[in-house]
Task: inverse folding
């Protein structure tokens, strides 16, 4: 099964001419490749690379420093502690 879904898009003739020109000159092998590349670029600029606020950046930096200095607990330790805690609540 493919991860692709076929869609239909209406574009101005000028855009289609540019797309076909880029296909003809070898920049892209198909219109679909060009559209996928354009969407990746749009995602990078608008979704994925949204600027982080100062509070978030400081939190990330604190977390990295904690890890570097050994101030963390393994997932196993956390899950075991949670399991013990909730088992004791259920047993009561």
Result:
């Amino acid at each position: 099964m493919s991860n692709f879904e076929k869609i239909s898009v209406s574009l101005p003739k000028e855009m289609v001419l540019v797309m076909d020109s880029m296909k003809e000159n070898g920049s892209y092998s198909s219109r679909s490749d060009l559209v996928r590349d354009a969407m990746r670029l749009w995602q990078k600029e608008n979704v994925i690379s949204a600027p982080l606020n100062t509070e978030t950046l400081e939190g990330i930096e604190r977390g990295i420093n904690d890890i570097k200095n050994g101030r963390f607990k393994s997932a196993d330790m956390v899950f075991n502690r949670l399991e013990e805690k909730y088992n004791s609540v259920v047993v009561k």
Summary: The chain has two domains: 13-48, 54-91.
